[in-house]
Design a protein that fits this description.
Its main location: membrane. By secondary structure, this protein is an alpha+beta fold. Helix content is about 60%, strand content about 20%.
Amino acid sequence: MPSRKKTAMFASAFFTCVFSFAMICVVLATQHWMSSEVHFSGTNSTITVSLTYGLFSGTCEQFVHAGLQVSERTFQVADNLGNGKAKSMITAIIVILVLSLLSSLLSSGFTCTNAVSNPYQTFLGPTGVYTWNSLCGIFILIAMILFPVNIQENSLSILLAQGCFPVLQKHIESAHTYGYSYWIMLLTIFLNIASIIIIYFYDHARYSKKKEQERPIENAPKDVILF
């Protein structure tokens, strides 16, 4: 059976891993990744499309500066994008987040296993926890980088606005605000770092204690050396 200290440390890491897993689920399930105001020039006025969307769905609303407002409608991101680069990158982000979800799940399993048993000399020990938490954090970071790239380089918001209202004409400007679904990913990275730090402190303390016990006899006090 593991010591109380080990159980407490790995149990703490387990809860951070579970929380990380839950946060990734929230990121995938919610549509508050981005809020955009996209402006187009109309025949006699300026048209503004207000968008709020995530990886799978969103809402859009059209305002004409003359005072006309089109009621809010819901759209599917994949349907509005067709088969271009923007859709491919959205698909890549989803795949990466699913991989991070699996990594977080495995990390939770490894920390739980270590909290109740002693698979210390195998990959199921701290090495496995370090690996899966690191991979999860890396996947999340990649997703956080790819999404803004998709906004800026592939004009994601503009394409979605034109998908909602096909009659829109020349694009003038856009304003973007990242929502909580996006920033939760940053929290997830911190949770993975916290898990690694917790296990590192335990691992380091155990290593130091082991080295102390294996101290060579020449370093022992002279009065306890037997001849």
